[in-house]
Amino acid sequence: MTRTPHLPHINGDWPELLPGWVWLVGAGPGDPGLMTLHALNALAQADVIVYDALVDARILEWARPGAAVEFAGKRGGKPSPRQRDISLRLIELARAGQRVLRLKGGDPFIFGRGGEEAQALVQAGVPLRIVPGITAGVAALAYAGIPATHRAVNQAVTFFTGHDASGEAPGALDWAALAKSSPVLVGYMAIKTLPSISARLIAAGRSADEPVAIIADATLPTMRVLETTLGRAVEDLAASGLEPPAILCIGRVVRMRRALDWIGQMAGEPPRDLDPLGLDPARDAG
After folding, report:
1. Cβ proximity of 172 and 144 under 8 Å
2. Is 2 a domain residue?
3. What is the domain count for the chain?
4. Is the pLDDT higher at 272 or at 3?
5. Does the pLDDT of residue 217 top 80, yes or no?
6. Partner residues linked to 265 by β-bridges
7. Burial call 215-240: b when 16+ CB within 10 Å, e when fewer
8. Which residues contact 235 (CB under 8 A, 6 or more apart)?
9. Is the predicted pLDDT of residue 177 greater than 60, yes or no?
């Protein structure tokens, strides 16, 4: 049985979730230990928890005894509630005087439709609070041993979504600009549209030999990482059997995994390369 973590002074030093309010809370990328204390505080107070498909079930065990739990997950290609219906349900619960926790995977405002739900609440006159969470685009790279930034390799990271409302690779994106925008590109929900994404980026100037990592079930015990290249990514992904949810990382910094695969090293695997990019940080004393 999972023990509920202790949150000190919950009724004094921590924000109170009031009746009629909705808190949009990020549950993090999967590993329950990556939740914030504000998220845990919300779980300890909420009357109703409306949660997403990617919220780990172990997190729900920390809910206040007697709290109602409602599933409102959206998964591509599967029967899912409509976004409008989810927003209306949040408004209905708040107007009934419930203390409502909308629990969303990752961060509510990073490809989590949190902006849409927040706007609907504001337009309905429902007070709300936003609690950020660790987004999968950051956590997946960290758990895979890939630094999202490294001052000797990249000074910018660009997050993009792999599909728009139509389910296809976003037509509104300037793919030529995206290809040139930063050394590291991190794609959310990009697995099904990977053929189109890789073709567009290569056509826009990214090298077919550029390193790529695809990280499935990020931060969970079932996490798997595929290391490939932009030109081979589609073929290698098909052979790997990896399925969503997964994060796509494109950039030279992926090679750092050869040195920084800390999960593999915890399991007794030695680093494959101590200096995969030829940087030798010991030379830099600054």
Report:
1. no
2. no
3. 2
4. 272
5. yes
6. none
7. bbbbbeeebbbbbbbbbebbebbeee
8. none
9. yes
The catalytic position among 189, 217, 256, 261 is: 189
Selected catalytic residue, list 31, 35, 52, 256? 52
CATH number at residue 239: 3.30.950.10
DSSP annotation of 10: T
273 in catalytic set: no
Place of tokens 């509630």: 81
pLDDT in tens, 182-207: 999 999 999 999 999 999 999 999 99
CA dist., res. 249 & res. 32, Å (int): 23
3-state secondary structure 209-268: CCEEEEEECCCCCCCEEEEEECCCHHHHHHHHCCCCCEEEEECHHHHHHHHHCHHHHHCC
* Pair 179, 278 in one domain: yes
C-alpha distances in angstroms, 239 versus 95, 211, 228, 232?
50, 17, 12, 11
Task: With respect to residue 8, please indicate whether it lies within any of the assigned structural domains.
Answer: no
Q: Is 74 a catalytic residue?
A: yes
Per-residue pLDDT tens digits for 53-88:
999 999 999 999 999 999 997 655 555 678 899 999
Average the pLDDT over 222-235 and give the result: 98
In DSSP notation, 20-55 reads T-EEEEE-BSS-GGGS-HHHHHHHHH-SEEEE-TTS
**Whose structure tokens read 């994060």?**
247
Check 47, 74, 192, 223 and give the catalytic one: 74
Examine the residue annotation and report whether 104 is marked as an active-site residue of this protein: no
Cα gap 84→195, rounded to integer Å: 31
Task: Tell me which residue range forms the domain holding 39.
Answer: 22-131
Residue with tokens 């593999």: 264
**pLDDT single digits (tens) 18-50:** 999 999 999 999 999 999 999 999 999 999 999
